[in-house]
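S.,

As promised, the NAP run. Input:
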Amino acid sequence: MADEPNYKSELVGVFGHPVAENPTIVMQEAGFAALGLNWRYLNIEVLPEDLGAAVQGLRAMNFQGINCTIPHKVAVLQYLDDVSTDARLMGAVNTVRRDGKHLIGENTDGKGFLRSLREDAGVDPSGLRIVVLGAGGAARAMTVELALAGASHISIVNRSADRARPLVALLNDNTPTQATYVPWDVIFAIPSDTHVLVNTTSIGLYPNVTDKPNIDYATIKPGMVVCDVIPNPPQTPFLDEAAKRGARTLDGLGMLVNQGAIAFKMWTGHDAPVEAMRTALAAEFGVS
Ligand SMILES: NC(=O)c1ccc[n+]([C@@H]2O[C@H](COP(=O)([O-])OP(=O)(O)OC[C@H]3O[C@@H](n4cnc5c(N)ncnc54)[C@H](OP(=O)(O)O)[C@@H]3O)[C@@H](O)[C@H]2O)c1
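Predicted complex:
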C-alpha cells in the first residue's frame, strides 16, 4: 500500500531586523533540497519589542529552531530554556534548536570558523599564537572557540578599549588561553611569532569592498595563516595583500557555510550537504 501523503513542512528560519537581505535561506534551502527534506527556512522580520512574543510563536507553531541575527543575538537568551556553555560564555546566541519542548540557545559562528580553519585550511589551533583584529560579536564567538580549542595565546587588537578589555578578561578568566589587549591607534605590525591572523572587523564589507585593515602588510610572513570574516565578496583586499606576502589565506565564505552546516545538523539530525550549501551561496554571491 502506498504511504499516506505528508504535506506538513518542518519550519526553521531567522529572526532579524532588518532581515530581508540575510542570505542564509539560500544555503539552508539548498541543503534541504539536496537531502529531499520537506523543511522550510523563513526570513522573519521581528522588532526588538516583539522578540518574546516571536519566541512564543516558535513554541506554538512547533518550529524546529531559528537563527537570530542583529539585533536579537543577546536579547534572545532571556526567552530560552537553556543555553550551551560556549554561547553562555559569549553572551550571544545565533542558533536556537528544539529539544523536545525545550528551546536551547547555541552559537555556531565560532564553531563554523573553527571547522573552516581545520577542514579548509588544515590548521588545528591547539598551541598556536593567534592575533585577532576587532573585538565585536564575531571576535567574541571566534576567540571563545579558539581558546576552548587550546590556542596558547590570543591578542585582541581593537580601536576601543571598552569592547576589547571585557573580551580579554572573559578569555583569561574562563579558558586556559592567555589573552592580551593591544590598542589599535597606529598602524599595527604583526608580531613575527604569529601563527594565525584573523580580521573580525567589518572593514571590507559591501559596499566598502576596497577598504582594508590598517596594518603593516610587510609584517605578514610566509607560513602565517591569514583569515577574514567577510563572506561577500570573499576575496578581500586584506586576503589579497596577505597572499602577496606568501601567507595561506582563508575566506569568510567557509565560516558562513560551516556555521550554517552546524545549525543544519542541530535542527535536522542529518549531516549537512556542505558542498551543495557552499555552491548555492557562492552562486548567490556571484563567485565560483
Ligand atoms: N563569515 C561569517 O560567517 C560571519 C559571521 C559573523 C559575522 N561576520 C562578519 O563579521 C564582521 C563583524 O561583525 P560583528 O558582529 O563582530 O560586528 P560588531 O560587533 O559591530 O564589531 C565590529 C568590530 O569591527 C571594528 N571596526 C569596525 N570598523 C573599524 C575600523 N574602520 N577600524 C578599526 N576597527 C573597526 C569595531 O571596532 P570598535 O570596537 O573600536 O568599534 C569592532 O571591533 C561583519 O562584517 C560581519 O558580516 C561574518
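The chain has two domains: 10-107+254-284, 110-250. Residues 10-107+254-284 form a domain with the Rossmann fold fold (CATH 3.40.50.10860).

- D.
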